[in-house]
Amino acid sequence: MLADRKYRVGVLGASGYTGADLVRLLIAHPNTEIALLTGERKAGMSLKSVFPHFVGYDIPDIISIDEVEWPAIELDVVFCALPHATSQDVIKGLLHSLNHSILDEMIVTTTADQANSLRSEVKVVDLSADFRLRDTETYAKWYGKAHDATDLQKKAVYGLTEIYRDDIKKADLVACPGCYPTAALLSLIPLLKAGLIKTEDILIDAKSGVSGAGRSLKEQNLFVEVSEAMHPYGIGSHRHMPEIEQELAVASKNDVTISFTPHLVPMNRGELETIYVKLEGNETPETLKAALLSAYENEPFVHILEGSIAPATRMVRGSNNCVINVFPDRIPGRAIIIAAIDNLVKGSSGQAIQNMNLMLGLEETTGLMQAPMFP
Fold first, then answer.
1. Looking at residue 19, what is its pLDDT?
2. Do residues 77 and 129 share a domain?
3. 173 lies in a domain?
4. pLDDT of residue 115
5. Cα–Cα dist 317/280, whole Å
6. Could you say which DSSP state residue 197 is in?
7. Fewest C-beta atoms under 10 Å: which of 166, 313, 328, 368?
8. Hey, which residues does 278 pair with through a beta bridge?
9. Which structural domain range is residue 37 located in?
10. Strand order in the sheet with 157-158
11. Which residues form the signal peptide (predicted)?
12. Same domain, 268 and 119
């Protein structure tokens, strides 16, 4: 891969919040050219008519996925910002063949030689949940349908960049973590790997801006429903739970069951997680913080705050940063970890571009060094 070349990039699902943030970040990326935008509900429209903040930029119009001429469009990277279950079928068409896809009629069929060419050349970064869970039976349990691309699941790399960097560099298919798992796992994995906290009684109280609920029209997301209020959802059954447990089990080499409750708060973007953990042996909040400082001392986007500064979403808004700090709990033998990210950047589109950079052999921080927006 050449660091000074332009890579042709496609965004499938560009009319959603995640897709829009991908476009926002890719516009300023020195090594990418946006060659394709798809969006079924907004097909035929210019992106600036869907998102007026893109006025003045030379960006392709949005088309339906059935209009895409695979593989003639010659993409280097495809970002899939599509709903779960849809991504696996589209990606299966890209990286294998278009046979047996539920979207057969939506994609122009390729020859076997063309499909093989796609397999070796196109890098795919999936932002849906379709390839995050290593066990396809677990996927079926939590998502209510069988996984239709089990062979690809075996090849997918979990895209938590700071933990799986070396694997991501060699991958053709990366499954980006969910926003809630990103903040939780960055906070907990180094501590479990070092044996500093117990695997039981991990409690995660998470809060996210309304953009995390997507852009589709839902009554519960109307202004009157979310303004001046905060409410929990997915209580005891949120689909990010098995994803968090999967990665914590890898880190601790033991099964882990968490308590996790997400809440929707009346802000556009941002995510804050307060995590309660039990300490092992004679460990203290100070040793936990020291372990996090050591784990992330050379990381460009994960920052352990000084002293007793509490992470807040205003510290990370619009950036690819994650800020973390550790505090003593008044209950002996426990500690409180707090983490903040922008759910659309480090929790989604920014992390996806961070992974793309690695997959293409580019400097990992390319296009992602924008400072947080404040106020």
1. 93
2. yes
3. no
4. 38
5. 34
6. B
7. 166
8. 334
9. 7-155
10. 62-63, 32-38, 7-12, 77-80, 123-126, 173-175, 157-158
11. none
12. no
What pTM value is reported for the model? 0.91
As given in the structure block, the two tokens for residue 244 are: 């968090």
> 61: buried, middle or exposed (CB in 10 Å: 19+, 13-18, 0-12)?
middle
What is the longest distance spanned by two Cα atoms in the chain?
A: 65
Chain CA centroid to CA 21, Å: 12
**Which comes out higher in pLDDT, residue 93 or 17?**
17
User: Within 13 Å of residue 120, how many CA atoms lie on the same side as its CB?
Assistant: 5
- Chain segment 16-52, per-residue pLDDT in tens: 889 999 999 999 999 999 999 999 888 878 889 888 9
Strands 7-12 and 77-80, bridge-based pairing: parallel
Locus of tokens 């992602």:
368
Q: How many domains does the chain have?
A: 2
Active site residue ranges? 179
pLDDT in tens, 234-275: 999 999 999 999 999 999 999 999 999 999 999 999 999 999
Q: What is the pLDDT of residue 74?
A: 87
Q: Is residue 218 part of a domain?
A: yes
Cα separation, 15 vs 184, whole angstroms: 28
Structure tokens at 122: 């196109």
Across the beta sheet with 322-328, the strand order is 231-232, 259-264, 203-208, 271-278, 334-341, 322-328, 302-304
pLDDT in tens, 95-148: 653 333 333 433 333 334 433 433 447 899 999 999 999 999 999 999 999 998
Which residue shows structure tokens 């798809």?
38
Beta carbons of 316 and 341 less than 8 angstroms apart: yes
Q: Is the peptide bond before 71 cis (omega within 30 degrees of 0)?
A: yes
